[in-house]
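Final report, Chapter 2: Outcomes

The project's central promise was a pipeline that accepts a single protein chain and returns its three-dimensional structure in a standardized token representation, suitable for archiving and comparison. That pipeline is now operational. To close this chapter, we reproduce one record exactly as it appears in the project archive, with the input sequence first and the structure output second.
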Amino acid sequence: MPDFFDGQGFKLWGSEGLEFLFRLLCDILTVTILIRGIYIPKYRRTNVIFTFFSMNIVIFLIGFLLNKVEMTMGAAFGLFAVFSMLRFRTENISARDMTYVFIVIAVGLLVSVSRGGWQELLLISGVIILSTWLLEKGLHSGQEEVREILYERIELIHASRRQELIEDLRNRTGLDIRRVEVGEIDLLKDAARVTVYYLPQPDKPSDRL
């Protein structure tokens, strides 16, 4: 058994082990700030936290282990492309959520395969966090915002009554709703989860549903 593992791994408390722990800490901290500090406060969709963190950690581990062997830059980007093309078939997922999936995959890959020192890792993580925050908080103003609500007038979710649905949601929420997407439908409870896209009112904080 000892011969089987000889030369195949690293000692946890050796230099490689400490490097692994530091990179893992940097990766998890970056994703935590992105998801818990930026994504959740804005979109309040906690059901995707498991997806974001699990995909990020798996990508990080794969990248770190493959980085121990000779791997060209083309192979690394090929691995990134495979995971970035994933689609979720069990439920509707917005373009914004897919963007965050793309980001957490990129963070896991960059942190795991970067050849630089801790300064480079912190710089990469800082740039990703800062750019995401600026796009969401600064440059995003005046554009559509998204909220998911539970809607009980299930007769209005029919495609032919879409305009009636939008008008009803506008009257009941006071939001300047531009479009809606119907998600999960529960016929037993006569309710559906509806994603609304609306323009925030100027000089007022974002509405909370």
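Archive annotation: The first strand starts at residue 145 and ends at 151.
This record, like all others produced under the grant, will remain available to the consortium after the project formally closes.
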